[in-house]
Amino acid sequence: MARQRLGQHFLSGPGWQKRILDTLPRGSEEVWIEIGPGHGEMTRMLAARGRRLIAIEADPRLAANLQEAVRAQPGEWPGVEVVSGDVLELDLAKLAGGRFRVYGNLPYYITSPILHQLFNRADQISSIHVVMQLEVAERVVAAPGCREYGYLSAACQFYTRPKLALRIPPGAFHPPPKVKSALVQMALPGEGASLGVADEAKFLKFIQLCFSHKRKTLRNNLLTIASDQRIHEILASCGLRPDARAEQLSLTHFAALFAAIA
Ligand code: SAM
Predict the structure, then answer these.
(1) Is residue 2 predicted with pLDDT exceeding 70?
(2) What tens digit of pLDDT does each residue of 203-221 get?
């Protein structure tokens, strides 16, 4: 039960571990945070890459086992600190004490909350490397106009430059998940850095509103915050058609609309 509840699907062999490792940056002075180390499938190899590795594990039994392994053979786990707890409840920047990189084979059921938590600390993060459900990864990297493009794409691209680095089949994990997976690499900062948006939280809420009913036009989705006449004028002032839909808009469009509506 705990396994299902915590999204536990462990990398089952050195082949995929090595392939994932090969995509990660090398830099011996860096601090890494690993989300959900499990039995330490990637932890030891990751530790050899940086100066410090903080591994956050929510399953108390797995965290205790890993802590014990590190205590027994510290030389095998250089710089590893195991934190027993829920990643969503921790202040990652405080734990890292400076800039850091993130790796995680994520518990899929909280992929989006974890990404948003990381984005809250975007100014402290150099890059994020996370395994997630392939379908979600395709949304993260989707460009405007694609079927998969939506709020998650816009939020991820506002903060990062995401790239689908590896497709990973269910058989790479034990037990195998019902879905396909992918490793997504996100270098920071994203497009947001050049958009000059003053209130990022409000901007993301605005994008969410634009996408609130996928079948509706922007005009209909925005009726809760402005009159039809006003929306019509604003769309025109941003060079958008009256029947424009959120899925056609780039972040630059969203930023222009947001500024005009504010
Ligand atoms: N890193 C291992 C691997 O690659 O084989 C395990 C990955 S498994 C998909 C996800 C891990 O995240 C599990 O060990 C699970 O217990 C842990 N986990 C689940 N929810 C968590 C949370 N909220 N905070 C930290 N770890 C969590």
Answers:
(1) no
(2) 999 999 999 998 889 999 9
Ligand 1: residue whose CA is nearest its atom 20: 6
- Specify burial of residue 188 (Cβ count, 10 A radius: 0-12, 13-18, 19+): buried
Tokens of 36: 């959900």
The pick from 10, 42, 91, 178 for probing ligand 1's pocket by mutation, whose C-beta has the most ligand atoms within 8 angstroms, reads 10
Q: What are phi and psi of 107, to 5 degrees?
A: -70, 115
Q: What is the whole-number distance in angstroms between the Cα of residue 109 and the centre of ligand 1? A: 11
How many CA atoms are closer than 13 Å to the CA of 31, on its beta-carbon side?
A: 14
Q: Full-prediction pTM beyond 0.70?
A: yes
Q: Which residues pair with 183 in a beta bridge?
A: 131, 166
Question: Which residue, by CA, sits nearest to atom 14 of ligand 1?
Answer: 38
Q: Is the pLDDT of residue 101 over 80?
A: yes
If you take atom 5 of ligand 1, which residue's CA is the nearest one? 10
From residue 82, give the alpha-carbon distance in Å to each of 5, 49, 60, 65.
21, 17, 11, 10
Of all protein residues, the one whose alpha carbon is nearest to atom 12 of ligand 1 is 36
Q: What is the mean pLDDT of the chain?
A: 95
β-pairing verdict for 125-133 and 161-168: unpaired
Domains assigned to the chain: 4-193 (3.40.50.150), 200-261 (1.10.8.100)
Q: Between 80 and 26, whose confidence is greater?
A: 80
- Measured in Å, residue 167 CA sits from the centre of ligand 1 at 19
